[in-house]
Specification:
The complex is a heterodimer of chains A (232) and B (275).
Chain A lengths: L20 H7 L4 H23 L3 H17 L13 H23 L12 H6 L2 H27 L3 H11 L8 H8 L3 H25 L4 H12 L1
Helix pairs in contact in A: 2-3, 2-4, 2-6, 6-7, 6-9, 7-9, 8-9
Chain B lengths: L4 H12 L8 E10 L2 E8 L4 E8 L5 H7 L9 E6 L5 E6 L3 E3 H6 L4 H20 L12 E4 L4 E3 L22 H15 L6 H10 L11 H12 L11 H11 L1 H21 L2
Antiparallel strand pairs in B: 1-2, 2-3, 3-5, 4-5, 6-7, 7-8
The chains are: A mainly alpha (232), B alpha+beta (275).
């Protein structure tokens, strides 16, 4: 399978306290600013979902993803979202599915009934995860990636680089975590300071994740449901 | 940043753990989840005693104040409410040792023990309703039966809680009658199979789709259960004649036996006199 795209990667911008999608609508910045936030978080999940669900190549999936976000802006996609019916995440995934299916059907018609080309997708993913699960997993991954960028940016801006370094060495380590004693020795601080730094960084990470969520949810209720879904 | 699934799971775990810096509590383990938060077992360092610490998912401080107002033998007492450094609300409450109602029922108690628990729950509900507090998520997992038979109703709800489908009333806007529905569902869930028809009828009346057709309050439902236990006719069920006769028989068994004995003696006397 061809490698995944690097488009739609993490954005390094520090988020101020964000307006919810519906607040953004009322403030006049809607929909461009809201779309920017949504695409920062959803671009990769949508892309991976299209690849898994419709068996698209890297380029086709990129085009469809790009097309989806462009069309969303044209067709008042956000305006038609009803928070009483579903979470924004569910609404967006269903919209992507409809959009990609329609696009695929149009392409099929152009080929006068030509068969749809399915490319082999990640076999392991097919065996263990549905496209919907892939979407959710990528959504979480992207959400944390964005929040970590926010955290790093905040630490650099506020002179807390050591806190981030200790946090990254311990909590972002993919293979084996160093001991608190090792980290303390490396940074010439007490072990209790390592504990405090980690507690602080985790607390800030939670804050940035929740802020990112606030920017892509429809209000307090939707935000609480998403926080609940994410953290428990 | 390339994040593996394992790293994300780790981050979700560590960032969700409550930061108890500056509090008197020390985290021990997670007990359970639900009702807008996670409940942990913690130790109160000052008083050297275990507590149950509920940390809310979102900034919802109202629930603790809500429950702190409810002082009742069947409502878990709240020791303290506060705010964590990360802005989440928490409250410390008595750590109840015992079994949740579903586990208690699985241990096969008698019908009378089952009904005793439901009556305690109903009394707590009536008490809370009288103070303007609804539960909103009554279910077996939210009722604890202690080792000495004490009953505690936990997880008193706040606006955002949507309820658990099997025990949630069908109406979109919940009110006190919605709790009556859940109490009926709770009653039905604890009944043995086969269950007495009168008790099934009580549960069914509490669970009517139309809230106005349910019991007006928890006390009315409890009164019907009491009538059943006293061998009287229940309000929820217009019983068939044979059932009424049988109930009359079992309520007045001694009297009927005496009457039968009297009739038997009279018959024997009459019989011997005429031979």
């Amino acid at each position: 399978m061809d490698p995944d795209t690097t488009m739609g990667g993490p954005h390094g911008r520090f988020p101020a306290t964000q307006l919810s999608l519906l607040e953004a609508a009322g403030s006049g910045v809607f929909p461009n600013e809201a779309l920017e936030r949504v695409s920062a978080l959803y671009w990769k999940p949508v892309y991976r979902f299209i690849r898994a669900k419709f068996g698209k190549s890297n380029e086709d999936a990129k085009d469809l993803t790009q097309g989806f976000f462009a069309t969303a802006l044209e067709r008042d996609f956000f305006g038609r979202f009803d928070p009483a019916k579903a979470s924004f995440r569910a609404y967006l995934r269903m919209a992507v599915e409809r959009f990609a299916a329609n696009e695929q059907a149009s392409a099929g018609r152009l080929k006068r009934g030509g068969s749809i080309e399915f490319e082999p997708v990640d076999e392991q993913a097919v065996a263990t995860e549905s496209p919907e699960e892939i979407f959710e997993r990528e959504w979480r991954r992207q959400l944390f990636a964005l929040a970590l960028d926010d955290l790093r940016g905040y630490c650099v801006a506020s002179g807390k680089g050591s806190q981030f370094d200790i946090f990254a060495a311990y909590d972002l380590s993919a293979d084996g975590r160093p001991s608190y004693a090792d980290l303390a020795a490396k940074h010439s601080i007490a072990e209790t300071a390592v504990t405090n730094y980690l507690a602080w960084a985790r607390r800030m990470l939670r804050h940035f994740v929740n802020e990112r969520l606030r920017g892509v949810t429809a209000g307090e209720r939707d935000l609480r449901d998403e926080m609940r879904w994410l953290w428990t | 940043m390339d994040l593996s699934d394992a790293v994300i799971d780790h981050l979700r775990h560590v960032a969700a753990l409550p930061d108890l810096t500056g509090t008197r509590y020390e985290l021990e383990s997670e007990i359970g989840r639900g009702g807008m938060g996670v409940v942990y077992r913690a130790r109160d360092r000052q008083l050297d005693r275990p507590v149950a610490l509920k940390v809310m998912d979102a900034v919802l401080a109202g629930e603790a104040q809500l429950i702190a107002r409810l002082e009742h033998p069947s409502i878990v007492p709240v020791y303290e409410a506060g705010m964590l450094p990360d802005g989440r609300a928490f409250y410390a409450m008595k750590l109840v040792s015992g079994a949740s109602l579903d586990r208690f029922i699985a241990s096969g108690p008698t019908l009378s023990e089952r009904l005793r628990v439901i009556r305690r729950v109903g009394e707590a509900l009536a008490f809370a309703h009288a103070r303007g507090v609804m539960h909103r998520d009554l279910k077996p997992q939210n009722v604890m039966v202690g080792e000495f038979g004490e009953v505690y109703v936990m997880d008193w709800g706040v606006e955002a809680v949507a309820g658990t489908p099997a025990f949630r009333a069908p109406e979109a806007t919940l009110d006190r009658r919605s709790d009556i529905y859940s109490l009926g569902a709770l009653l039905r869930s604890v009944l043995p199979v086969p269950a007495p028809p009168a008790l099934l009828a009580i549960a069914a009346k509490a669970m009517r789709t139309d809230p106005a057709a349910r019991y007006p309050d928890a006390r009315a439902l409890l009164a019907d259960i009491e009538r059943f236990q006293d061998g009287l006719a229940v309000e929820a069920w217009s019983e068939p004649l044979w059932h009424r006769v049988r109930r009359f028989g079992s309520r007045n068994a001694v009297l009927l036996w005496l009457l039968a004995a009297y009739a038997g003696v009279k018959f024997l006397l009459f019989f011997f006199r005429n031979i």
